[in-house]
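In line with agreed milestones, the collection of sequences with tokenised folds has grown. One record among many is set out beneath this paragraph:
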Amino acid sequence: MELVVSKANLQRELQLLQGIVERKITIPVLANVLVEADGNEMRLSATDLDFALRTRCEASVEKPGTITIPAKKFFEIVRALPETDVRIEEDKTGVKIAAERFESRMSTLPPDDFPALPKAMPDVATTTLPVAGLKHMIGKTLFASSAEDTRYFLNGGLLVLKGSQMSLVATDGHRLALVKATREGEAEGEETKDIIPKKALQELSRLIGESDAETVTIGKGENHLFVEVGGRLLISRLVDGQYPAYDRVIPKSNDKKIEFDRDRLLSVLRRVSLLSSERSRAVKFHIGDHAVKVTSDSPDMGSAEEVLPVDYDGPDVQICFNVQYVQEFLGAVETERVVLEFKDEVSQAVMKPIEPQGYDYLYVVMPMRL
């Protein structure tokens, strides 16, 4: 193999591959990126056996070939090079990576050792989703997914497609985030539900951020999901499990509500939470006549409180929340105002943005009992 490629283009693609590469190195070749060169492009692939990413960039290929190169060091070397063309040349001892007066040599592993990636696109039925809508959905739900290995079916999000509507929901059992949006050209169609792992959604969000594409193409094989955006293909194992009936968690009888200025509430929570218990991260909302007093206390550190004037004239209620849960919701919405809907101090509360543009979003959070 021998080729010349733009440093900027190669660095961009290698950076995207870093999140896929196996870190534990149980199988040595999984720490490498597979490089295939022919025609006028080089194709790069990385996998950890559960996830894979295929990407490409233009190159002047003088000798076609296939090699594997250690992904982390390959990226670090390319990133450190000056803004110029990079020459990659395979020889009997490994691969040479050079630019201007710099030259390096790296060991390689046989490309035959690299796992064969699932092949589906374009052999499976596909659907198209808008990039802007999907980006909103991931950003507003993924933080609510679980990180517990024992509840693997909650380690990601449930993507629901039905007709012109698409939804994404995530929950960890203590809170739930649900966002709905519309898509064009799908007025009819059967409902599909797929649990997409958290890592796949994280990588998809990165791919969307690096692409100018307006749509994402999704196809589903027997065990894998294939997502193509901007010429890059993300492959993910689907989670085999039964997602909870999330509709049952959404309360229907919350009869009290308070509107907040989003930025002001977020600032109050940041200040008051500085003296919350590091273990529970609890803050209390003392809701009374035209005011909400937000308080925290820690046996070791002390206490803090701040009063927010609000438009509320209902009965007094005291609700306790994990402050991180509320802050993450407030950080995910863009609207100037949000609403808190509740029934009492023990039932699920709901937070929503007021007048969101282009999507429906609700966030269910369980109060804490101290």
Observations:
- The chain has a mean pLDDT of 93.
